[in-house]
Give the backbone structure.
Amino acid sequence: MTAEVTTDRAPGGPGSPRGTGTYAPRPGGAPVARMIAAQAALETRMLLRNGEQLLLTVIIPSLLLVLFSAVDIVDTGEGRAVDFLAPGVLALAVMSTAFTGQAIATGFERRYGVLKRLGASPLPRWALMAAKTLSVLVTEILQVALLTLIAFGLGWSPRGGPVAVVLLLVAGTAAFSGLGLLMAGTLRAEATLAAANLVFLLLLAGGGVIVPLDRFPDAAQPALALLPISALSEGLRDVLQHGAAMPWGALGILAGWAVLGLAAAARFFRWE
């Protein structure tokens, strides 16, 4: 005679059997969508807890908006300064998060082996990049909400429809994300830190964010207009300040940068 052994137990904690051969939680990886959401939430918390990144993504754009709206430093043309500055500062916020912040954070994660270890986890590499992009979008929503409230407090009167604004912001995010990941995946972390901050300052000065493009020499204006920050600034300005329906030219420039940047990042990004 043989005794029959069962594994039935009362549920008592994580992993305790509930029946013969049945375990809870079930062994194995979670669904990819759940893993992406968890990783995106982690990425967002890490970004918001980083004082340097918070300074770059939230405080600097807010200070620029308040300072240049309240003090007549730059001739922004006819109308109130805040109507010109608010779209440019929104574009700057997108660049600071999707390009500068993401490039620096990803570059140091690559240096310290974080990306290598995450790449060996059940989370697919494409899903990791999707989580980073989702984290960027969440951060940008918070940025746009804060800057919009500040601009309204300064007397901003936006025009145009929200669909064009959303399309421009999404296209700008894709363009800057591709360029940021390309930089982070090909340069050393220290070089990425220096280059990302340098590019941020150069595009802030020459991308139509604070100073109108028509204030630059005539020979330089066509080249400056092709920069992603210029296309995003001018596109948002066409909609929010001048009431344009859809600035297709600016959207096309951003789409071109997005395709080139993301394709180059996918081709040349090194995980180690």
User: Anything to note?
Assistant: The CA atoms of residues 186 and 269 lie 6 Å apart. Residues 32-70+79-268 form one domain.
